[in-house]
Amino acid sequence: MQDPNGLLSSNRMKKHVVMQSQRTRCESCGRSVPSYDIVNVTSLEHGGRTLCNECCNKEVAALGDLSMFEHVRFEPVRLADCTGAIHEFHFRTRLFGPGVAIDAFELVDNHPAGYRFEIIGDPEGDLLELLSRLIEKIRRGLSTKHLIDRDLGQQIANHQIVRGEIGWDEAEGGSGPLLTIDGHEITWREFGRMLMSFEGWQFKLEIKDKSEEL
Ligand SMILES: [Zn+2]
Hints:
This protein is of the alpha+beta class. The protein contains four helices and 13 strands. The longest helix has 16 residues, at about 125-140. The structure holds zinc ion (ZN). Zinc ion binds near residues 26, 54 and 55.
């Protein structure tokens, strides 16, 4: 199942704009929640509204007749990477009709940054079981470093596989990506410099949805 990246995930697009700590009031329940927990929803009945993920999920569940769906607020979880560094993951649950996605992300200046993971499951399935599968996925993701520090700067590690996320680079205005590798932002230019250690070699580039296993 793929997240259709439709209207309900519009806060993904906002992440590059909202760079400072902000809280926004949900127009349905009145709670003040962090911007990363807000969804802008437009419907014929209500027009444009700003809802928290929980209220949005409840409306999607009602529209989709998903009576078994129950939104769960997950507390942050702290996990160690392979160097012993601790990462605190926050969670966001998004129902999009045929599936439910749980996103895990770190926070920098109160907005999602660093390591990010996602899992998609049955909207009427056990969300706690889905969360435990997501945590196992995070553990696998944290078990390897793809970049290492060498005398000439950061380089691709000896296993010669790099996994990461493709993001928007404000400085490039969309003409080049900003990668996130090992939870750190790496510009396309920096990554190109690392690749130059392998001049004359071949490479294989495989692109997958964030919810898939790399
Ligand atoms: Zn709400």
